[in-house]
Design brief:
Chain A has 456 residues and is mainly α. Chain A contains 19 helices and no strands. Chain A has one domain. Chain B is 40% helix and 26% strand. Classes of the chains: A mainly alpha (456), B alpha+beta (113).
Chain lengths: 456, 113
């Protein structure tokens, strides 16, 4: 998740190379600004008794069976819907302008995305099917079908910023997750995630190199994609060990395929096995490959506790440590794989840890700490009011950010554009999946089940 | 189907060439009694290092790198040459691992989760 602005290769001869992306042009930076900004504004509004001005924006619909009632619900909240649309159009629009995206394209694209998200959200809470086709899966399914059958216009593609929306959502999620829970459950999440990550990375790496004879750097990229944090992990480790671009491409393609498959499978298995929400979310946190996909899977469980435990496991337990993994792999690559002693090998900078660290996680922790401190400083009644009103608004807005994420995942997952895989990397990665999923299940639902069930 | 094909991933290879030799070299000299000859030796070492950097820049220029300076470090950038390629070429040309530092940043292509 050390996200930088996505780029499309220009045909023909490349122009002057782009240098490293400045901090102000990064998605992480703007996700932090928008996420923390929202939380601060809502807090200030609470203390100035003007939260009523923001509340209409926190649009949520009522479960329906009668379509006309659903339409009445929308009509009664139309002002809020427009407010929500305009608010995020302006803040996202400003951010993407700084990031260098075509703003008129983004405005058109986001408008369509927003309308679709309202429609999908409404459809997803129909009483007839909301228990077996959760909103996230519906958003994903619609997006995948449309994205793989229709030629999406460039202006629409501009607004499909999966990483940007999910990072903003994660930071808003931080506000809802008390810092005390992060402190108490964080160490367990880190321990469980480390066990699964190390075993999964090891199995993929050794399968890739020993069984299938692949290059160690290739094995490391596959391992990172399957164990640390998906595409971001593959990119970070690929950069740290100077893997070939083709190898990173294959690893990313593998992650995308399996991540999308797991969005459907993991919640399905969780429901079929009758798992409690907390352990189910933790399982998804160890066995999903990407944050965006994982939030879709956790949301599909249909219980807020699953989202909380997923966040703890994935963001706190795994994402945070990608920088450490990058440093270790960088050192391995110049000493072990290049067979050079430490004093003769190319220098490896400890700054790799910070360079590869997903900066949006800082926003997540800050949001959590901020709201926890605010509540702690208030009287019990005022604290309860703050939780209900301010965090209630933040929670709804988080939901919208995730809905845009899920739609974007669907529309952007174009299987035909993924790199030709080859059976060896696929086999190595699959071996990792076959170890990761049962191990994650066992740790989340047997060994540490009581801890995860305690997360409310 | 029939979408414009975008790269799964793009890359930026950055090679850092320090104009200053490693500190240990100067430490050894400055540990001795400071004389004009010591200062001349320091100047020679710096000049040799600059020559090495220029030679590496020539090799990299042939590969299409462009350059920027940040204080005492020259950074070479390329979106086309991969990190392992430039490292291989620098080693083959007789430069040691410790004479340069390579950074590689990958950026996910549009739509890659």
């Amino acid at each position: 998740m050390a996200g930088v602005t996505q780029t499309t290769l220009s045909p023909g001869k490349p122009s002057a190379p782009q240098t490293a992306v400045p901090m102000l042009k990064r998605e992480d930076t703007w996700a932090i600004i928008i996420g923390i900004g929202l939380i601060l504004v809502a807090t200030l509004a609470f203390f100035s008794n003007s939260l009523g001005l923001l509340k209409p924006m926190a649009v949520s619909f009522t479960v329906w069976t009668d379509f006309s009632k659903a339409m009445n619900d929308v009509a009664s909240k139309l002002g809020g819907i427009v407010f929500l649309y305009l608010f995020f159009l302006i803040v996202f629009g400003f951010a993407v302008r700084v990031m260098g995206v075509n703003v008129p394209h983004f405005i058109c694209g986001f408008t369509v995305l927003f309308i679709l998200s309202v429609f999908i959200t409404l459809l997803g809470i129909n009483n007839a099917w909301k228990n077996w086709m959760e909103g996230p899966l519906l958003a994903l399914g619609v997006g995948i079908v449309a994205g793989n059958t229709i030629k999406l216009p460039q202006w629409f593609r501009s607004a499909l910023k999966t990483e940007f929306y999910v990072k903003t959502g994660i930071i808003l999620m931080g506000a809802i997750l008390p810092f005390t829970i992060i402190l108490s459950a964080g160490p367990l999440a880190i321990m469980q995630a480390t066990i699964v990550s190390v075993i999964t990375f090891g199995s993929i790496y050794f399968a890739a190199t020993r069984l299938f004879g692949l290059d160690p750097r290739f094995g490391a990229c596959l391992g990172a994609g399957g164990s640390i944090c998906g595409v971001s992990g593959a990119i970070a480790i690929g950069g740290a060990c100077r893997a070939e671009k083709e190898h990173v491409s294959v690893a990313i393609s593998m992650v995308v395929i399996w991540a999308v498959v797991m969005i459907f499978l993991l919640p399905l298995w969780a429901k079929a096995l009758g798992l409690e929400a907390g352990p189910a979310g933790a399982w998804i946190g160890t066995s999903e490959f990407a944050d965006a996909a994982g939030f879709a899977a956790a949301a599909a469980v249909g219980d807020e506790r699953a989202i909380k435990t997923f966040t703890l496991m994935k963001v706190v337990g795994r994402d945070m440590f990608v920088g450490v993994w990058a440093l270790v792999v960088a050192f391995l690559s110049v000493t072990v794989w290049e067979r050079k002693t430490a004093d003769r090998a190319e220098r490896v900078n400890v700054s790799e840890i910070w360079n590869r660290f997903p900066k949006f996680v800082i926003g997540f922790f800050f949001a959590s700490l901020f709201t926890t401190v605010v509540i702690a400083m208030l009287s019990p009644q005022a604290g309860a009011a703050y939780s209900k009103e301010v965090l209630g608004v933040v929670k709804v807005l988080r939901g919208w950010a995730f809905t845009w994420t899920f739609l974007s995942i669907g529309f952007t997952t174009r299987f035909g554009e993924l790199t030709r895989l080859g059976w060896k990397p696929l086999a190595a990665f699959t071996i990792g999946v076959l170890i990761n999923v049962p191990l994650g299940y066992w740790l989340s639902n047997v060994v540490f089940a009581s801890y995860w069930m305690a997360i409310k | 189907m029939g979408q414009e094909k975008t790269a799964v991933v793009t890359h930026l290879t950055r090679v850092a060439l320090s104009l200053m030799p490693e500190a240990e070299v100067f430490n050894e000299l400055y540990a001795q009694e400071l004389t004009p000859d010591i200062v001349r030796q320091v100047g020679k070492i710096k000049a040799q290092r600059a020559e090495r950097v220029a030679a590496m820049m020539e090799l990299m220029t042939d590969q299409g790198f462009t350059f920027q300076r940040d204080k005492q470090i020259i950074f070479g950038y390329s979106n086309t040459i991969e990190a392992y390629e430039i490292k291989r070429d620098l080693i083959r040309a007789g430069f040691a691992d410790r004479e340069f530092q390579i950074y590689l940043e990958y950026t996910r292509g549009w739509g890659m989760l």
